[in-house]
Amino acid sequence: MSRPRRARVGWLGRIFLLVLVLLIVLAGLLLYAETTMRDVGTVSSLAAGDGVYLIIGSDSRANLPPDLEGNFGDFPGARADVIMLVQVVGDRRQLLSIPRDLKVEVLGQGTQKINAAYSLGADELMVETVFAATGIRANHYLEIDFGGFAAIVDALGGIVLDFPYPARDLNSNLSVDEAGTQDVDGATALAYARSRSYEELRDGEWVGEATGDIARTGRQRQVLLEILDKASSPAGVLRAPLVMIASARHLSTDAGTNVFDLAEFGWAMRSASITDSASLPVEISVEAGVSYVVAVPPASEVLAAFASGQPLA
């Protein structure tokens, strides 16, 4: 009778050792991510709480991998290419895009496009300007650069996007030769998300889109949701360590947001069964030769819905 008991103890020991090793590896990955992510410090414009993330996609070229260098021009510094408010309320995940050309008053800088707040005053001024323009006070600040966006998609093994027609953007280096569902890599996903001169091949002619930056914000939300869906799939879960390693050096957060907060938020986004995705309603306005977009009356309804966690449309 003693031999089977020793066998059971042996198997339990192996299982315990395996769990211990996995926990050590996980702890190491979390420590790596926490110490590698850039801490922008305390952002006083953020409100206490866990609800709303302000996500900024920076166009910084500083951390581009070698295969992407030169794809997006040589522009020093960084600007806010993506501005998005994201939250989870119950089983509802909500993504609200703020067009980068939105006309706003920036503290101490007068009338500007909203993305100028980032280059003029970084995270602090960006958070304050978004609050002034929307009435929504963010609780967390998360910034990701070009290289990080592409790195996450590649670490996940690519994502799936649907193209009704062949598509291109000569400025962002987007080139999709066939219509239909496509497996795309990080470079293509990035080119798609930041495309501002998007064209589709219809009946043998290249046709540009009429909605410009509004359609662009829709593509950005589409890519983010595809990343979340892929990350929550069985294959994506297995690739989580690769995603963590690949993305950490491209992420910046406020001092009150750590890797555990991001993991908790990601899990909540993954678990939500209802998706609300919208862009702030705007129209084009040209003033003194400068092209802005300005909020139209339905914008107040969308902002009120987001603030109260109600459906955006």
Name the CATH class of the largest domain.
Alpha Beta
The proportion of residues in beta strands is 25-35%
Large-scale geometry: globular
State mean pLDDT (0 to 100 scale).
82
Largest sheet: 7 strands, mixed
| CATH-defined architecture of the largest domain | 3-Layer(aba) Sandwich
Number of separate helices = 9
Count of discrete domains: 2
Features:
313 residues, alpha+beta, Aminopeptidase, 2 domains, seven-stranded mixed β-sheet, four-stranded antiparallel β-sheet, 9 helices, 27% strand, globular
Structural commentary:
This protein is α+β, with helices and mostly antiparallel strands and 313 residues long. The chain has 2 domains: 1-36; 40-308, Aminopeptidase (3-Layer(aba) Sandwich), CATH 3.40.630.190. Helices cover 41% and strands 27% of the residues. The chain has 9 helices and 17 strands. Strands 1-14-7-2-3-4-15 form a 7-stranded mixed β-sheet, sandwiched between helices. Helix 3 (146-155) crosses helix 4. The chain is globular, with a radius of gyration of 22 Å. The model has no long low-confidence stretch (mean pLDDT 82).
